[in-house]
Structure formats: C-alpha cells, structure tokens
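Teaching assistant's notes for section 4

Start the section by putting this record on the projector. Ask students to predict, before seeing the second block, whether HypC/HybG/HupF family hydrogenase formation chaperone will look compact or extended. Collect guesses on the board.
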Amino acid sequence: MCLAVPGKVLEIEERDGTRMASVDFGGVVKEVCLEYLPDLRIGEYAIVHVGFALQRLDEESARRTLDLFENLGLLEEEFGDPWEQAARTDTPTPEAGR
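Reveal the predicted structure now:
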C-alpha cells in the first residue's frame, strides 16, 4: 500500500543542488526531497509520498494522522525494516541461502 505520511522536518541541507531534509515520521527518520516545497522550514510538517514532501501540514493534523497510523500499525508496515519484517514471517530472506 502506498501512503502519503505526515512528517516533521528535523534538518535541511542542499545535496548536489537538491534541497533535502531529515524528516521524522513518528520516530522513523528518513531523507526527503523538498524541491516541491522550497520554503519548508525546520520544525514544520509536510505530507510525504515516495520520498517527496508534497504539501505543508499543520502540527495538530500531522500528530492526529501519525497517531492513527501508529494505532493501525501502518508506520511499521510502510517504513519498517524489510529484513526484520521477513524474519517475522515464514518467508525466507536472501540471507538465508548464505
């Protein structure tokens, strides 16, 4: 499932001419491209989809959505470690053959 998830901007830097940010999604921090929201600032929230910040969001809405996603287990599903997820199932991982 693909989700647009709200996250809080922690740090901003320019990398190879592209504005990038470290964004916190309820405890999971990922790198996000800010090119669609060039005026987004540290401490603000944005809706992020496939690594791109798409829309600014107020803090209250972001927190409600993150709480809902956490309660439904969607943050783990969307951002969890694929090796950890594979270990919780009967599906062998590529490491199993080594």
